[in-house]
Amino acid sequence: MGRSYFVDEAVEQYLGGLQPAPGSCVTGLLAGQSSPQRDFVVLAVQTPYRESEGQPKASRGVSPLDDIDVEWVTEHAKQVSRMLPGGLCILGLFLVTPPELAKDAQNSLKKLIFAMEKYITKGRLWELSEEDVTDRVTLHICSKTKKTVCKTFDVKDPKSSAKPADWKYQTGVSSSWPMLTCSVEVDLLIPLTGSSSDNTDKCMKDGLGRWAKQIEAAYCLINGRQALDDSELISGQKKNLKTAHRQTLPARIFVSDEQSELDERSSALVRVCSGSIRVRGVVHCRAYIHNNKPKARHAAQAIKRDIINAVCSRVEMFLEDLLINEGSHKGLCSGQQALPRRVFAPMPISGLSVCDYMFPDESTADVAERLKEMLDCETPEEDIDTSLESKQLFSAVSGSETTDSHSDDSTKHATSEVQAENPKIQKASQYYAGVAVAAGIALLATATSLLYLNE
Amino acid sequence: MVLSEECDIIFRLKAILEFACQLDNPNGAQSQSTISKTFQDLQSKVSSKNIVFTVCNSPLLIWPNTGFQSSVESLTEASACGDILQYIESDDGGSKKSSKKREKKKSGPTVVNMKLLFEVTEPAGNEAPSLIQVSTQQHCVKMPLPLDCVLSVNTDESLSTVCTGLVKAINKQLADMEEVVLQYRKGSSFLVPQPFHFQLPEPAGLTTVIYSAGVPDSQLQAVREDLHRKFKLPSDRPYLRRANAFHFPDAAYKDGYLRNPHIHLNPPNLEDAKLYLVQGVYSYHHYMQDRVDDDGWGCAYRSLQTICSWFQQQGYVETAVPTHTQIQQALVDVGDKEPRFVGSRQWIGSIEVQVVLNQLLGVTSKIMFVSQGSELATKGRELANHFQTEGTPVMIGGGVLAHTILGVAWSETSGEIRFLILDPHYTGGEDLQTITDKGWCGWKGPEFWDQNAYYNLCLPQRPKII
C-alpha cells in the first residue's frame, strides 16, 4: 500500500561506498522526482564534513545520533535544492548507523525530515498544489549488515507516523527522461517602501511573489502543444529505456498582466517609495519529467517552478552575500549590479544536469569546488556549461528608465563610474586573496555614491 | 425588423495591462511627459513580436505581429475569419456551429472572445541578469488598464485583416486612455480609464468611448455633447450614457430578469398593418418576483416596475427599479396617500403610476382616458404615434386589471388593430418558452379588453436629455 521508490543503480553504488568511522553516523540527502504513482531517486549525497569546535560529543557519553547537526543537514539540503533543475527535488534523507543505534535511528530520521522540509520551503514563492506528493522518504542503512529500511512520512501532517515503502534498484532510471528548456526574459520593477533592510526584503519578496503568480498562471506550450490538461506529454511514444537519446522539448510561456487585486479598482494605487529595484535579464531554465506516462500539465508545472526558482534563488544568494560582506543592505548601492549567472554541469552518472550560480568574479574552478563540496562529485571544469546565460549587461547609461528625476544625467554618469568598481565589492569574500585591496576600493566607491547619489 | 441572412461576427479582445510609472514630483512639469512615455512604452509592447491573441474556449493562438502565425495549421492569414467558429467550444461542450435549440428569431451577431498574452520565452536578446537600484524618493503609481477592443466584421473577412484591425484598435484605445487619464489626473491621483461600447446608428456602428471610473454620467454632459455632434446623433435622447452600453449577445444579464421577451414572437397576420413597437430594452416584471407575494394586488406596481426598468436601461436615470414599498412611500411623500398606505396591499392605478414616475424618476406622462373598453380599438393612431415618437411602454389600468402595452399592429386603411401585451399577472419563473407559448407576452385583439369598463392609460414621455 505504501509508496514505491525506483532508485538508480548509481545511488546503490554510492551508498555502498560510504565508509562511516566506527561507531559514528552518516547523514545525507536523496534527490529525484515524485509522481502520483511512484517515485524516482537519481541522486544521493552525504552531508559535507563540517569543522566544529570542541570535542565530538560522542566521546563525552552522548549518542552519535544526538551529535547530528540538524542545522547543517538542513542547510546542505537547501543549498542542494538550489542546484536541482525543475522537476527534481529533495525527496528525503538517508542515515547510516552502526547496528546498536538502528532502533533510535527512526526517531532521528523523523526529526530531520520535518526540519529539513520546513527549512527548504521557507520563503519559497510557489505553493504546493493538491496533487503534489507530500511524502518524503527516510532510508536507514546498517553500517555492518548493509540492510536498508525504507519508510515515508507525510510532511504535511506533523503527527504522521512512518509508513513502509518499497525501495527498488534499477538501471538507467532517468536515462530517457525528456528535458524541457526555455530562456525567459525578466523585467520586474519592485518599488521599495521604507528604508530598513527588513523592508527591502519584504518588498522584494512581495514583488517577486507577484511575478511568480503570473508565471504559475501563465499559458504554456510544450513542443508546440498546449500543456493545460491531462493529455499525455508525449503521445504515442514507446517506452524505450535502452535508448540513450534524451528528447529536448522547448517550452513557451505566455503571461497576462491580470492581477485580481487590481481589477476592481477605480483609481490608481500610489505609494511613496524610497526607491526601487529592477530585476532584468534573460535566464535559462530547465526541467526534467519522468517518462512513465507524464501528463502535459505536470511538465508545465515543472518548468514554471524552475523559472521561478531560477530568478528567486539568485536574488536570494545575491542579497545573502551582501549581508555577509557588508553587514547590511546599505551595501546595495544605486546603479546596476550583475546577478550571479546560472551554469549547468552533468550530474554524476544519471545523465541529468545540475546547476549552480556563478558570481561575476568567480570562475569555473570555484563552481567545481562547490559542486565537490555540495554534491560530493568531481566535475572537470570543461564540463561546466557557462554558455547558456550571457555576461553582457544592459547598458544603464544609454538605456531608458521611466523616471523623471532631474538629476538623471549626473546620476547615470556617476553610476557608470561606480559600476566599474562594483564587481570587486560584491564578492570581497574568502575567494579573494587581496581583501585589503578590495576594502580600500569599497571605501572609495561608497564615498563616491554618497557624494553623487544623495539628494 | 429585417432578418439578416449574414452571420456577422464581433471580435472582442480583452486584456488588463498594468500601467506603472515612477514620479519624482507628481505636480511637476515633468510628470506629464513621464506618463505619456509610459503609455508609449505600452503601445510598443503591444506592437512587439511577443504578443499573442488567444481565442477563448479554443486551442487557437495567433501571433499577429510576426507576419501572422497561428497554432492551428489550417487557419492562415487568408482564411475567412468565420472559420474560427468551428474551433470554439461553447459552454455546453458542442461547437458553435451546431447550436442546440434554435430560437424563433435570430439572436444577433456571434461574439468571438479573445485575450491578449505576452510571450516571455524566445527573447530577442540574451542580456545578463542584473539588479538595478534607484535610491531616490518617488511616487510609485500602479493602475490596471482594462483594455476592451471590438471589431465588427463579416464572416468572410480575412483573418489577417481582423488581426491587423485589432492591433490598431488596441493602440488607439491606449492613446484614448492616455488622453482621459491626463485629463482627469490631479497630482498623484489617477482615475482608471474604462472602455464602453455603444451601438450607434450607421455609419459609426459599434463605437468605443473611454470614460473615467468614478466620474458619474452627470458630470460628463459636455463630453457627450461633443460626441453627439461628432457622430451626428440626435441631441434630445441619450446614446452615450453608461447604461446605453451595448449588451453583447453572449453575456447573461446578472439580475436574472428577462429582457424584451416580445422579440421572440411572430407578428400578427393583419392585412395592411404596420408594427409600432416599444424602442430599446425593458425587463419583464411580474407577480411573485423578488420574493414579494403580490398575487392579486400588485399588477400595476409590476407594470410600473417594467416602465422604470426601461428608463434605467435607456440611460435616463441611474436609480434602481423601485420596490413595492418604495413606490408606496413615494405616493405618501407627495401627499397622495396616507402613511398607513406603506406596507398595505392596496391597488394603484394609472394616475398613481404617473405620480410615482414623476416623483422617483422625474419623468412626466400623458394620461389617456377611454370611457369604454370597446373604444380602445379606435385609439390606433394615438398609440402608433406614441410608440413612434416616445417608444416607451404604456401602463393600462381598468376593470380590475392592469397591463403593459408594448406596441400595436395597426392598419391605417382598415383600422384593424392588435395590441402587444405584457401581462404582470404571471406567477411562474423566468421561462421564456412558457411566457411566449402561454401568451403572458403576446398579441391580443380588441376583445381582450373589458368592453364596458373604463380605462386609463399612462403614456410616459422621454425627457429631452442626452
UniProtKB/TrEMBL annotation, chain A:
**Where are stretches of biased composition, namely Basic and acidic residues?**
403-415
Q: Quick check: keyword Membrane in the entry?
A: yes
GO biological process per UniProt: intracellular protein localization
Membrane listed as a keyword? yes
- The UniProt transmembrane annotation reads 431-453
Annotated region (Disordered) at 395-421
- Which Pfam family is an annotated match for this chain, by its short name? ODR4-like
Q: Where is this chain's protein located in or outside the cell?
A: Membrane
Keyword list, A-Z: Membrane, Transmembrane, Transmembrane helix
This protein's GO CC annotations: endomembrane system; membrane
Which family, according to UniProt? Belongs to the ODR-4 family.
Q: What does this protein do?
A: May play a role in the trafficking of a subset of G-protein coupled receptors.
Q: What is this protein called?
A: Protein odr-4 homolog
Q: Which organism is it from?
A: Cirrhinus molitorella (mud carp)
The major lineage groups are: Eukaryota, Metazoa, Chordata, Craniata, Vertebrata
UniProtKB/TrEMBL annotation, chain B:
Q: Which domain of life does the UniProt lineage start with?
A: Eukaryota
Q: Give the matching Gene3D superfamilies.
A: 3.90.70.130
Q: Where is the UFSP1/2/DUB catalytic domain?
A: 275-458
Q: What is the protein's name according to its record?
A: Ufm1-specific protease 2
The alphabetical list of record keywords is: Hydrolase, Protease, Thiol protease, Ubl conjugation pathway
At the highest ranks, the source species' classification is: Eukaryota, Metazoa, Chordata, Craniata, Vertebrata
- The residue ranges of the UFSP2 second domain are 36-253
Q: Name one GO biological process term.
A: proteolysis
| GO CC term, one of those recorded | nucleus
Q: Which family does it belong to?
A: Belongs to the peptidase C78 family.
Give one GO term, molecular function aspect: deUFMylase activity
**What is the organism field in this record?**
Cirrhinus molitorella
Q: Does the keyword Lyase apply?
A: no
